[in-house]
Amino acid sequence: MLKLLKRDLKLMFFSNFNKVVFLLFIPLLFIICKPCEQKWRYFIIVYTYTYTIFTEPFLYDISSPIVNSLPISRKEIVIYKYVSTFVYFLIAIVWTGVYLWIINVLGIADVDYFNLEMLRAVLPMILIVLSILYLVYFDFGSSVASSAYAVMFIVSFNRVMMLGSSGEKSLLGRLILSGDGKYISIMAIILYLLSLFMSMNLYKTKDI
């Protein structure tokens, strides 16, 4: 699994698309989302970076299945994919924190560079979105997964950007923060585990 992680990190760091997003997304967001509350801006940034980090390995695996390139069992592949989400999330938090801290230190803007409330809010949304994408990938294969990825990116990014402007006033915002985020967190964990077990069962008998 460490070999897979090293491969994914290389894909992430050497991707020109990732470099552009990681460098330019925050300045663009400050222009596009000027009226956004600081905390929801932080939410958008962490979500977008996590999804961006996830993108490169996911699309690479669609074109070149892991089981064909590395000596690793199908069960280990599935487990790795689901666990790697938390690695991507951690990298996104660190990069967001460093970037926004630099903006603060330089006096460019007064921004939140760490917001625990929003981290608790954004993680369930990431888990829900990726649980769907992983299940589609391991069940239906690359062609359907590519389409699902595109649709999910457009829909979820649109919802996230709307959160930035409406926050708790929106239905999604109220759902995310209801009960201090406990309800959606429980739902996300259950859905993610169900997706994991279904993917393991489906992928072990799948023809590649």
From TrEMBL:
Keywords: Membrane, Transmembrane, Transmembrane helix. The keyword Transmembrane helix applies. The chain crosses the membrane at residues 12-33, 79-106, 118-138, 144-162, 183-203. It comes from the Bacteria. It holds the Pfam family ABC2_membrane_5. This is ABC-2 transporter permease.
